[in-house]
Every structure is written in structure tokens, then in C-alpha cells.
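Hello again,

I reread your note about wanting to compare the complex against the isolated chains. To keep things tidy I'm splitting this into two emails, and this first one only covers the full assembly. Below are the input lines as submitted, including protein chains and any nucleic acid or small-molecule components. They are followed by the predicted structure of everything together. The single-chain runs will come separately.
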Amino acid sequence: MPIVLLRVDERLIHGQVTVGWGTHLHPDRIVVVDDELAHSPWEQELYGLGLPPTIETAFEDVATARTHIADWRAAPARTIVLTRDIATMRRLAEGGMLRGDEVNIGGIHYAPGRDAVLPYVYLSEEERRELGRLAEEGVDITARDLPGSRKVELQELLGGKHRRQ
Amino acid sequence: MSEPQPPIGIVIAHGTLAEGLVDAVRQISGIEPGVLIPLSNRGLSPDAVVEAVEHAAAGRPVVVFTDMLGGSCTYAARRFAHARPDIIVVGGVNLPMLLDFVLHRALPPAELLERLLTRGRPSVCYAPGAVERREATGG
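Full-complex prediction:
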């Protein structure tokens, strides 16, 4: 079974992913791609808290993850791939590795320098540029926090600036 | 030698749950302000949630209550506790547990933790009385 969800979410493994998307997609495996977390066992343990034992987790740096993408697509396990920021997803996608796939922008929260685009998406200028670069890798980008939410297309993400909610 | 300062409680949860729980404790027990501090993770990045917990704790002894074991609230609490091993983090908070906390927070930490778990767990239970009444009335 292929990768069932590629998602950018600062909170990585949390309720929206395990409950909201999990009950919809029935994943067997969640892979967090993050250079820092890949080398932090205690934080990996935190992210695994509360996950049902039927869901396997893995934490990989970008370089390792890129060597595994083909395996994830070919394996029977239904895999969710998470990054905490757009830049990491773009690095994962470089060279057309995710061409034709859909990347879900699920949660990037307020921080200084970011403007509100959606209640769950705030973007800095650099992050807007990263979205453009990610799109140039042949990836279809949409934002949606939960499966039942409205799907927001890239053009709306790049064009919309709203007041912080 | 002065008595050790009893811990405050920080309740961190999704949505408005923490605020509601703390409000319910206030209504029932009449606690003094500042003994229980509610926090929501709504709209906050993981780092911002940790900062909010740190700010609320302000260096004091703390028991952090979170709404469920997995997820961003517990993650933030555990990250906070990683830097302060004296902090107690309890997942799956409920109202009886919080009520017990405000009444007994001066207990030694290990005893307090044991008490919170002992009092909180049985409150999640089957309530047979309601069913018996329904059966008796044919409802």
C-alpha cells in the first residue's frame, strides 16, 4: 500500500493525526522525518505516548528517509509521513521524489514573522517561498487540518493574508 | 527551616477543557486563585505551549495535568518536565482528581501522586444506579 498521507504539521504525532486522520486512513506506520528528532530518543518516546500498539513509528533524518520512500510505497503497511516544517518536506521531495503526490499542510502555528492564512496555518515570507519550491518539485499542495475540513488550494494559501484569529 | 511550598496545578488540554475543569473545581471547592491554572494548546506551536507552561509555573513546584496521554499537551508537559525532573505530569485528568489535588496538594510528592492516581482512576466507571432505575421504570 502506498504512502497514505504526507503532512506538514508542527505538532507531528498528535490527536488530529492519530484520531482525526488515523480513523479515516487506518495507518499501520507513522514516519516522522526530522533531522533533530531522529537523534533524540527521549523525544521519540514522548511522541509515541498514547499511540495504539498497532501503529508502528519511525523517526528518520531526511537523507535516510529519501532512501526509504520507494520501500514505503511498495510495502503493505499504510504509511503516514510527517514533517514539522515545509523546508523539511521540500528537502524530502527534492529531485522529484514526491512527484505527483499530494502534500497536506496540516498545522503551522503563530510565531513572530508569520502571517495568518488559515486558523491553523501561519506563514512567513520564507515559508511561502518554500511552498513555491515544493510545488516546483511536482507536488500537489493543499491545506486541511482534518479529513472533513475544506481543502484549501495552494493559490489561496499563497495569496491569502488574514488577521490573526 | 521553612515548610516546603505546596505545588500549584497546571491543567493543559485541548479546546476549552482546562478552563472548564478549573472553573468546575472553583465552583465545588472554592479554591483560591492561582492554585490551578488552565491552559489551552489551541493555536499554539509546540514550543509556544512549552513556553506557556514555563510561564505559568514561574519556577514554583508544579503538578501538570494533561487531558490525554498522547498528543501535544502531554508532549509539552513532558518536555517541560525534562528540564525540571521535580515536576509531576499526570495524563488523563478528570474532575475528581483535580478536586483531590486542591485539597491534598501539601502532601509529599510521591504520596500526592499515588493519591491522585488512586482517586482519579476509579471515577471512570460504570454507573449501575442509572441503569437499575431505568429498568425499574421500564424506560
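For quick reference: Residues 17-29 of chain B form the longest helix (13 residues).

B.
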